[in-house]
Amino acid sequence: MAAAITLNAVFFAAFMSRVEAQDCTGLPGCDNTSALFVAAVRNLTWPLLAGVAVYGGVARWRRRRTRKLWGTPFAELDGVITRIAFQVRVPRIPAIRLGPRLGPRAYVVGPPKDPQLVLGPEILALHHKGEEARRAFAAVMRHELAHVKANDLWSHYIMMVLRAQNVAIGAFFLVALAVSDSSAHESMVVTIRMVALVLIAELVSRAFLRAREHAADARSTAYDAAAMGAALRDGPCTPGPPGRHMKWLLRHPSSSERRAALLDPDVLLSSSAGHVLLAGALAGIALSTIQDLLLRWADPQSSPDTPIAAGLIFGVPLSLFMAFQVWPLSKQGGWFPRRLLQVGTALFTGLVGGSYAAASTRLGGVEATGIPLRASTLLATAASAVLLCGWLLVVAASWRRWHPVSGNLRPALWLGAPAACIVGSWLVALSWTWAMRLRAVDLGCVGDAAREHPVCLSSTPELDVTRSVGETFGPGPALVIVIVAAALPLLLAATVAVLPARARVRK
Description:
By secondary structure, the protein is mainly α. It has 18 helices and four strands. The protein has a four-stranded mixed beta sheet, with helices on both faces. It starts with a helix and ends with a helix.
């Protein structure tokens, strides 16, 4: 989410600085480099400060719609909730307030140093409806206090600020595009791309908010799992769109989904094709944007290396994300090729679509960008995505084979996470460099003079680009990657003899 918002803000700042710098182009004493830098820094602060101001105003408005419990029919519940807070052992007792218009809802808001627990009247009324209702009331309180105990208010606070900044950036950009001298075609293309960026960032934020609620449920069930299940079963369900494939549009998981997660926690570890699709789209956007910014500010002599740098920069987080999405699949049943094809297809579709959704194409222009829509390029990109997901599945399967009942995942993480970063970033950099050099051939072989270049006269440009990429990467790094990828399952198998011996020593 932070990466998506940062890319949107950087693109907006770069686009506005390019528009402003055009006013002094050709005039004596005009320094475009310094003017672009100063304008970019200034334009970068506008949407960010606007997002903070919007979130602050909304938070203040929501606070004014609440009141203290003192002087209400629920005043005695202040002490009850305080005792539950001491039982949960929260680091800071939140201020308890009544939201008259909340109804059956409750939430924790505010900065971590001054949390506030806001409750609706229907939630507070549960305490006076019998023993079972009081247990459900205590379970709901433990769920809300679990957010305070887990100290996830900082992440929630940052996420809400980023969501406000996301909308502010989109609004600032549309206004700037409307007053610029861009053509109708350029304005339409860049507007569609910017809307796609804003929507992707919003979907990522909703996935985070759903995961946050599931984590609070898991912590609250440590005290009374039956009461939490009864509260979710008998309480009002959170409405959601119809269809089980539309759950990823919700900001808050429904009660049925939360009950299913409590009965089978492995449901939360199941890889969602929607999450993988979003990750692939964000990776494609980030790769195009980072490469564009590197081309804008890098040395022209080092421009052929910009795809490598972009692939290595974003290949590490993408590989880690895919590892933690794919590894839990080893615990599920089903056909191995089907799961591999599902995850690989989602990643491939997101990468290709995201590479064309990037708004920063040479700082706002509509030049061709993204992965070339050739059969060979699409096949190579799909093969790279399936190869990465398949290797991660093999690593997870090898761990489960040698440790079928072990709940200690620390050795697998210590060995698997660095190896996934190395192998994944190298594979992403290799495939992205190959695709971008082939894109450069397509863009460069347009005029009559350019067609006389040997690459343009070749009948097999894919092979020529493959040789060029092979010379750039060299056989040494490829051999190291192959050794790391092949040695990781063997190292995980070797821990079979190490872990029992260490366990006996500790005993």
